[in-house]
Amino acid sequence: MSPSKVSRTRTAWARTVDGAQGGTWDHAHLLGTAALDAYRGYTAQSRSRHPTHTWNTATIPTVDFGGRLAHQPDPDDQVVAALARIPDTRLAAVDDPWIIDRQLRHTIATHHAELDRQPPDRQLQLDTAGRELAAARTRLASTDAAVTATRDRLDNLGTFVGLTRDGRAERRGLQVQLHTHQGVAIAAAGYVARAETRVERFRREQAAHDTHEQAHGWRREAIERERDRLDQHWTDVALACVHADQPLAHGVGPLRIAHRHLNGQLAAIHKTIPPDRSRDRDTARDDLAHVVGRRVEARRNVAAAKAELDQHTARRWPRRDRHAIERSSQRLALARNHLDEAAQLASRAGSQLDHVLQHQHTRAAALAATAEQRHGLSKGIEHVDQALDRTRTQRVIQLADHPTDLHLAILGPVPTGAAGRAVWCHQASRLEHHLDQHSSQDNSIWRQLIHKLSDTPALAQFADHHIPLHSLSDEHDTWRQITQLVTEVRPANIEHPH
After folding, report:
1. What is the H or E stretch that residue 32 is in?
2. Would you say the pTM of this structure is higher than 0.85?
3. How far is CA 195 from CA 24, 199, 205, in A?
4. What confidence tens digit (pLDDT) does each residue in 335-357 have?
């Protein structure tokens, strides 16, 4: 290419029509071919704010027909004919991932709607009401006993008790006690009645809850299965988009779902694999070798002690040393005890080694059985993570133009100056990295990140005021260097203002 043409050359992104769907650019050029149709043509020619220039091309024959073709259509005619073609919409319906998404979400919503109609679980209230009823009945029985005892005492006073002053006083006292006990008994009976009403009400409500649970409790497991299917669906979509070099065809959401889902599947497989006990195996082998050495040494000691005893007992009576024979017998018995202990230790060490070896064999079998699946999941995670890393800068640039509510709430408004925007983009890249790798925001790591990003508006403002930058670079390293410079310089500038 001549230098004069190089000076008029500008770089641009090349994307498929399907990959560009949903995006808007200032300028776009369409490579028109016979592969277009009415729908893709409309999509391609409506991606830019300015009129789209279509470069019409014709298919070059790759077969020698032995002469000039009788009909060789013009590129314009081929593209016009292609744009007039209506594609088979059934294929688009099958390939549209949102159809399955809506179906699965509708199924999940249906299950939730039915579970939301379940009467409340009253088991805790029922247990509490039952205990209160039992206590109320105990109090009622006690007050009834007091009423009966007081009435019996009144009945036993006799006919002539009223003839004396003390008798009349005793009768009046018992009458007062009877009246008091009767009042307490009436109150206790009322409390028992109310407690029985509460117990009966909670029992009915709990029975309704249990009936609904028996009829629809299976929906909870169904929801988990449908959610897993939904995650698997978007994982398949994300991997297909990554393999087609269009990782953001449906946004970053499928990539993040795939990252979480694939890692969850891999973690679930790892839980089924017995842990590695190689260190225990090596320790068991060393222990066995040590106790086997002790057993060999004990056998030699037994043989030596037995030979010594045989030597002493082989002498004839006049030359026998009774004390030496006793000492040799004791040494032989002690050596045999040591041999028995060493044999037991060797047996236990051998059993322990066999147990660890069996565990390792089971682990090896589990690793072999899941090797292909783990390899596939690991490759999928690798591809998804690479796509997330590769597209993060592009996503941040788009966020700088169209920030989400979450990014605005955490990072503040996007600065207008180039240096401030560079700081904002670097902080947005940190936030995007966290969202790419973590599914939950309610954790300590998230809170620490929010704290670190809280000074983004101040850093961006300082960068705009002190760093002369005329245009925003689309390189992440440049964003990082500017942010690092601002972070290092800003405290010193504040402490020693000029």
Report:
1. strand 29-32
2. no
3. 69, 6, 15
4. 899 989 999 999 999 999 999 99
| DSSP tag of 58 | -
- Asked if 181 and 108 touch (Cβ cutoff 8 Å), the reply is no
Quick one: 226 exposed, middle or buried, by C-beta within 10 A (0-12, 13-18, 19+)? buried
The answer to whether 34 and 57 are in contact (CB under 8 A) is: no
Q: Name 90's Cβ contacts closer than 8 Å, sequence gap at least 6.
A: none
CA distance 122 to 126: 6
Residue in 32, 37, 36, 78 with CA at minimum distance from that of residue 55: 32
Please state the φ and ψ torsions of residue 113, each to the nearest 5 degrees.
Answer: -60, -40
The enclosing H or E element of 30 equals strand 29-32
Please tell me the predicted confidence (pLDDT) of residue 412.
94
Residue type, 303: A
Q: Which residue has the tokens 């954790």?
A: 443
Q: Tell me, what's the pLDDT at 63? A: 45
* CA torsion, ordered 453, 455, 458, 464, to nearest 10 deg: -30
Q: In 3-state terms, what secondary structure has residue 418?
A: helix
β-sheet bridge partners, residue 53: 29
Q: Does residue 66 have a pLDDT over 60?
A: no
**d(C-alpha 201, C-alpha 203), whole Å:** 5
Q: Which amino acid is at 416?
A: T
